[in-house]
């Protein structure tokens, strides 16, 4: 063998030796350091050490496979047992939690020994955009911060928050909507002009906070106005407020009506307030934004407007099932009147019963629902006429005094003059006055009328809700 051959053989042997040495060192190092690294992540026993969390899932004492199974199970239970809804103004929409996808593998790869690590999750952007459009096209405008919403959704899902979660979408607009007049109503001021003018100077506006109530009696008490306005003036104001908020989603928490419909109000739209009888008018703002009632006198008109963020739905009112009750005529006889003489003591007025409904419409115009608001009844006030005695009439002593009342109105008559007769008992009690008939028959009729009113109306303080 030549020297060159021997030299090549030694060189090959050296290369082989080096390769074997490097391979052995690599295998040894991998076994040693790999075990050390794995131990740092999962502990010396191959499990995660104390206080190791992925999202809100505690994986302490679990192997990587056990941790994977546990996290996967928790995400499935979270999607099955919890709810998420989007709220925008008056609208609430349920969101299917399958819109979220969890990446458990990638989440575990980032886990080290101890500490809290994020549970990686994504949201289906197409489904999210479709849901927002379904709620309102306003949520697809440039002012709406969809990226901010997406971030909050991912944070919520990553921590697997339990229970019912609600996202208030109105808070994700870059700029708050400008307040607008969302409802208004006008009533004639007439005789109450001076009192209403005094009100507009003392109370130009009232702010109603989100998720709060406004009690008219409480408001005037807190502002030292209880003795400044009569029950009639407060009722005038309350009726205008009532008619205004009916065209919104405000709730009517307490409302009363008079026995006789006031001249300034329309049947179905009256609200009576009387501090002495604790008859209040209370409305509730169930929205997440505040609204302001503004009061103005324009010419002879008392104007009330409600300003705030525009509503999503449209609200319209309808009066239905109206029935009118014609008054009867109560005839009384008085011997002091000359033959053929006749006097009208009280003019009769029609009675009415009417129902009020509120229709809620989608922006598209479709009717979402129809809400019953009230069923108001105003009894008729009968006409009272006093006549002279009939000529050549010889009263039978066994019969009633000739001054007793009779009812005559053709086909619709009643032998009992007090039957179905109603007077403004509220006014009578308020003024503390009553008229004494010369013959005494009118007083008897009025007593019967009061009794009849109590049967019809029940307790004075009963609220119409």
UniProtKB/TrEMBL annotation:
Record-annotated membrane-spanning stretches: 16-38
Region span, Disordered: 393-465
Bias-annotated ranges (Acidic residues): 398-415
UniProt keywords, alphabetically: Membrane, Signal, Transmembrane, Transmembrane helix
Keyword Chloroplast: no
Domain G5: 313-390
Pfam families: G5
Alphabetical list of InterPro entries matching this protein: G5_dom
Biased segments, Basic and acidic residues type: 447-465
Protein name as annotated: G5 domain-containing protein
């Amino acid at each position: 063998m030549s020297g060159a051959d021997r030299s090549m053989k030694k060189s090959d042997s050296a290369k082989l030796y080096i390769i074997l040495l490097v391979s052995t060192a690599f295998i040894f190092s991998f076994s040693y350091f790999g075990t050390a690294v794995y131990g740092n992540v999962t502990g010396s026993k191959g499990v995660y050490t104390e206080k190791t969390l992925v999202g809100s899932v505690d994986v302490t004492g679990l192997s990587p496979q056990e941790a994977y199974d546990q996290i996967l199970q928790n995400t499935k239970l979270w999607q099955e047992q919890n709810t998420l809804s989007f709220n925008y103004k008056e609208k609430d929409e349920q969101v299917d939690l399958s819109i979220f996808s969890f990446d458990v593998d990638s989440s575990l790869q980032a886990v080290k020994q101890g500490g809290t690590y994020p549970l990686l999750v994504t949201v289906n952007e197409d489904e999210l955009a479709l849901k927002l459009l379904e709620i309102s096209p306003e949520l697809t405008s440039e002012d709406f911060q969809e990226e901010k919403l997406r971030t909050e959704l991912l944070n919520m899902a990553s921590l697997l928050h339990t229970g019912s979660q609600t996202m208030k979408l109105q808070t994700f607009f870059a700029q708050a909507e400008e307040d607008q007049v969302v409802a208004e109503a006008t009533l004639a001021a007439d005789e109450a002009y001076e009192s209403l003018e005094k009100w507009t100077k003392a109370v130009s506006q009232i702010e109603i906070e989100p998720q709060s109530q406004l009690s008219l009696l409480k408001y005037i008490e807190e502002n030292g106005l209880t003795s400044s306005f009569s029950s009639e003036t407060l009722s005038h104001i309350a009726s205008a407020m009532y008619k205004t908020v009916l065209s919104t989603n405000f709730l009517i928490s307490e409302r009363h009506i008079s026995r006789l419909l006031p001249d300034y109000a329309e049947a179905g739209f009256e609200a009576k307030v009387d501090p002495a009888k604790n008859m209040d008018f209370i409305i509730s703002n169930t929205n997440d934004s505040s609204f302001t009632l503004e009061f103005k006198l324009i010419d002879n008109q008392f104007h009330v407007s409600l300003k705030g963020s525009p509503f999503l739905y449209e609200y319209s009112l309808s009066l239905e099932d109206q029935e009118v009750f014609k008054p009867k005529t109560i005839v009384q006889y008085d011997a002091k009147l000359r033959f053929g003489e006749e006097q009208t003591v009280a003019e009769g007025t029609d009675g009415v019963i009417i129902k009020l409904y509120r229709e809620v419409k989608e922006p598209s115009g479709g009717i979402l629902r129809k809400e019953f608001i009230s069923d108001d009844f105003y009894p008729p006030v009968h006409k009272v006429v006093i006549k002279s005695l009939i000529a050549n009439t010889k009263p039978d002593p066994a019969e009633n005094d000739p001054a007793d009342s009779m009812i005559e109105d053709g086909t619709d008559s009643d032998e009992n003059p007090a039957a179905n007769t109603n007077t403004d008992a509220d006014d009578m009690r308020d003024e503390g006055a009553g008229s004494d008939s010369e013959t005494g028959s009118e007083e008897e009729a009025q007593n019967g009328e009061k009794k009849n009113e109590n049967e019809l109306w029940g307790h004075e303080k009963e609220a119409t809700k």
